Amino acid sequence: MKTDIQLNVNGKEHTVQSAPDTPLLYVLRNQLELNGPKFGCGLQQCGACMVLLDGKSTTSCQLPVRTAAKYKITTLEGLVDENGRLHKIQEAFVKEQAAQCGYCLNGIIIASVALLNESPSPTDDEIKEKLNLNICRCGVHSRVVRAVKASIE
Amino acid sequence: METTRRNFLQQLGYVSIGFSLMGAAPVPHSFLAPSKMRGSGKRPDQNHINAWLHLLENGKVLIMSGKVELGQGLRTALKQIAAEELDTRLDLIEMQMAETGKTPDEGYTAGSYSIQSSGMAIRNAAASARETVLKMASEKWGIPISQLQLKDGEVIGPKQKISLHQLLAGRQIEQEVGTPSEFKGKTVRRFVGKPVPRKDIEDMVRGNPIFVQDLRFPDMVHARTVRPPSYTSEFVSMNESDFDTQPGFLKLVRKGNFIGILAEEEYQTIQIMERAKKSVQWKSEDYLPANTPLKDYLKTLPLETKTQEDKGDAQTAIDQSQKRHSASYFKPYIMHAPNGPSCAVAIFEDEKLKIWSHSQGIYPLRNSLAALFKMSEDDIHIIGVPGSGCYGHNAADDAATEAALMAVEYPGRHVRLQWMRDDENGWEPYGTAMIVELKAGLDANGKINGWQYEVWSDGHSNRPDGTPESLLPARFLDEGYGAPGIGYKGGAVRNSVPYYTIDAVNVQSHIFLGPLRTSSLRALGAYANLFALECFMDELAHKADIDPIEFRLMHLKDPRSIDCLQKLRKNTSRIDLAEGEGLGYAFCHYKNETAYFAVAAHVKVDRKNGAVQLKKMWAVIDAGETINPDGLKNQTEGGMIQSASWALKEAVRYDARHITSLDWNSYPILRFPETPETEVEVIDRPDQPPVGAGEVAQGPATAAVINAIFNTTGVRIRELPVTTDALINA
Ligand code: FES
Ligand code: FES
Question: Which Gene3D superfamilies match (chain B) (predicted)?
């Protein structure tokens, strides 16, 4: 049964009509038309669908939208400021050219932002540990680590 | 966001364009240039300049390539090539990639051939265009060509200048592509050879819509496929009465053994598909060889044996040598396993099909679809849109076919199909399992005097080829198409003949039709061949008691190979190895004719639990003329990491019925904490032709890892993937 659900996404309040057990990912992509969060596995194994919930990186592919309603949700799009300026991590990924196909970037950037929220100057190992859930099949890992480090320098 | 979305759709030719797009709101750098021409269904004639290059009203130049962007940075590299010949700033060059009826038919984007083929075709066309317009202006003004130049979209004379659009009076350059007298890419190199950044990465980090997965159309419906339990399952029955009551349910499409679900919303579709999976009855047999070790089983299959190389008398040379050595290597089935499962959007309207796909070959896919649907090719329009990185022939074409099958049953609405993770892992065409057996002899100086090589492999490509069989769903339909045969056999023997100087060499190939569905995976057979060959070289060096780099140098003559290895030696000369750490090397001349590549791996092995930690990998690569050194580095770094993942983690598992590696737990790949630091040195040789490099790292990087493990443990791993068991207390 669909109901009205209030969501706070990227600083704005939205009312969506959805079955409450629909995973947040589908609501973000298909109702709010956001492209950042991606479907990768639907199993909480790859990180492609990550969003920030109150600043913490969380997979959205199995998270019921009714649960997500309790948090402030930030997607990749929401990291860009109101003047269109990129977050320093986004900027570093562009500068370091840390992407191939880019499908994984959403989750990797979201998790990196969450990491810097917790610890402002992480070591290489801490960066890698934080990104443990994020699958990248193109092998841009070493560039990603360089980009995250560059963003804190 | 609305603007972005509208532009994305416009760029994909959905919204009819009634005004000049260029004058509209800023167009985000998307993978797809605005549609400027209506697709007629016919292939542009590649002998003419206007197949590759169009002059736009706003002074920009549109370059058309039949290749697709796979994350390899091809769009940027092709832009650099065109900009150079046209002496025109990069921001004045637009790119249109892969769309039937608009771009040239360049077959597949595969085999690291895109720079060699599309890049050189565009270089030729752009240089011809330059010479043509200079000649036109020279005739118009009565000034010799030597006093004219083409710059940033204008022809400039001593006192006059004219835009290309004006010069051509709005027409295109229809002349034939000639043989230009100068390539600025070889002489000037203002853009070529520079690390021009990719523009699409900014779109990625902003979350702009760039993937086929991001396409949304008004009234679009969602589709999912109800997979059978195995390759050969047959439909028996299903309780269909149940579906009507499901929220959002639109249609059940059943054609023979193919079942698809259409519903209004994506998650509804997934739920109905899962319900359907439970209610459908299939007849399935157990037939996969789950109880026999794969490497034993493969040898029981009928084989097609061929001699690939026979020079000197290898057998006698080995028999008479001072030292003899033999070894056997095995590589399991490996999957492409893209991060994002395959996806396509299709619409069937007015008896015509339009499909958005991340296929690597839109024209070949169209041929096969025309055969499957018994339609004219001209009535099928395929638009290439980037997907998640594919590394070869993954399920892109299959998803496009399934979306089309369902669109035909539900005309007038856009149908979006994305495969689920278990669809992708369980049904894609894998890179085949392979066996290599090697024997060699060493003379008194430690030189190889005889070499015997045997390789067992399935074919390596079953891409769409104009027949329906290469498309997965075909076999499930009532028409009785069946599965394709062995496919491209040439892939199996890629790099099977050693590049090293050896007098007596014998190479045999044995081709089988294996139990699992296979097709092209990055580097094809060169992966297993170079893994085996480069591990064996390390073993021989050890036997001869010669440094492994020195041992390779003893068997190489050409200066480019030697240069790569010497640079690698220098770059790794100051590594301090701690307790439990090892360094391993490998080399290749890809396909024995394209790029040169030397690689080193630094590993740490924990003897207590057998865990291998990769610390760092170094590479030196010479791909001839370098178009974009950063792009080349990126590809090489990624190739090394993917190869290390194949070596340390990956094997497709199955039981008697079907694949069981259906998610990231049952098909683990290297994760961040397990990945190494990377360092790549590029040797740029502008005087040489540019060659592709996207596949070069695969085989040697695995060998370097395995050789590094030996270097610290003394254990030779000859079966992939490396298991901890092999290394515990070894
Ligand atoms: S899609 Fe959510 S973790 Fe993979
Ligand atoms: S860049 Fe392709 S999956 Fe990471």
Answer: Aldehyde oxidase/xanthine dehydrogenase, a/b hammerhead, Aldehyde oxidase/xanthine dehydrogenase, molybdopterin binding domain
